[in-house]
Amino acid sequence: MKNGSDSSAGRLFSRYERLLRSRILGFPFVLVNAFTKWEIYGRENFLSAIKEAKNSGRGMITFSNHLSLFDDPLVIMALLRLRNFTVETKFWWSTACASNFNPSGKGFFPRFVRYFSDVSNMVFLSRAKKRGSVPPEVLDDPLEYISSVLGTRKMEILQERVQEKGMSVDEWLRSIYTPASDGYRGSTAPLNQIGMIEVISRINAGEFVHLFPEGGRSRDGKLGPARAGAGKVIYHCGNAILVPIYFYGTQDVLPVGSFVPRLFKKVIVSVGQPVPLEFFDEYRRQKPSPEIFNLISNSAMTLVAKLRPLVLERYYGKEKASTILIEETQLRAAIEKAEKSDLKKHVFTPVVVNEKEDYTAIQ
What does each C-alpha distance from 90 to 31, 208, 305 come to in angstroms? Predict the structure, then answer.
C-alpha cells in the first residue's frame, strides 16, 4: 500500500513540478504579449479551424512566415487571447530549431535551456550542414520512440488512422521514409529525422502543429525560399486542417541576435481561410520525393504571400506597402530572367495587379 501511495505522490509531484516550470517559462511570454500592440485580421478563420479540428478529431497545421525567435508561441497566443500560458494550456506543438532549444552539452546554459524546453510542447528539428547545429537524428526503427512521445491514447488513434490505409503503425512509419533522389542535391537526413516523423505522427493522431515552411528566420522581413520539410508534412497529412498565417512586426519585438524583448511594438497578423482538402491532391497523386515536397512547400507559401499586402499596408501605410511590393516584384522578375528557371522552383511573392489595392501571388 505504501509503495502505491509513494507512486501516486511521485506522479502528483512530477505533474506540479512540470506545471511550475511551465509557469515560470510562460510568464515572460504573457508579459510581452500583453504589452505588444496586436492588430489581427481573420481571427475567426483560426478559431473556426480549431473548433472543426476538435469536433472532427482531425489534425491541424498552421503555417506562416518566420521573423523572430518567438513568433511561435507569441502569434498563436495572440490569436487565442491566451493569458495563462503553461504546458497545460499550450495545446499545440511548436516546431523548434534543435540548436536553439535543445542544445547538446553538459554546461549550465544547455542544461538550463533543455530544462524549460522539456515543458514547452516542442518538436525539435535540425538542418543539415549548418555550423554548430545539432545533427539530424535518423532512427532505423522509430516505432519505440514515437510510442513513447505520443502516449497510449494518441497511439491508439494513430493506429486507427493507419489501419484505414491497410497498414500497421510500424509499416506506416517506414512508408514515410524519404529515399535519396537523383534530382535532389541536398541530404535527405533532415527529411527523415525523428523530429519530422514525430510531427507527421502527431498530426495524423489529431494534434495541432505550427510549421515554418521557410525553415528559418528572415533577416530582411521578406519571404524566403521554402524548404522541403513542410511539404513532406503536408504530403503525409492528407486529412489535416491547413490554415495559412502571415504577420509582420515580431522582428521589432525580438530582433535577430537579441535576447531581450522590446515592449509596445506593433504586430499585424492576418489569418487566411482553411485550405480546401483537395488543394494539394495533384501533388499527393505523385510519388513522394524531395522535389514534390519542395513544390508543396512553395505552394503553401503562395497562400501565405496572398495575406502579405494587407498586413504591410496596415503596418506601413498603402503607399509605402505598394512601393515595397513593386520593388520586390521587380527584383524577383530580374532574378528569374537571369536564372532562366521554372517559376515553381522559386518562392512565390506578391505582385501588384494594379495601382490600387488588388494584389495576387505569382503562380
Answer: 16, 10, 27
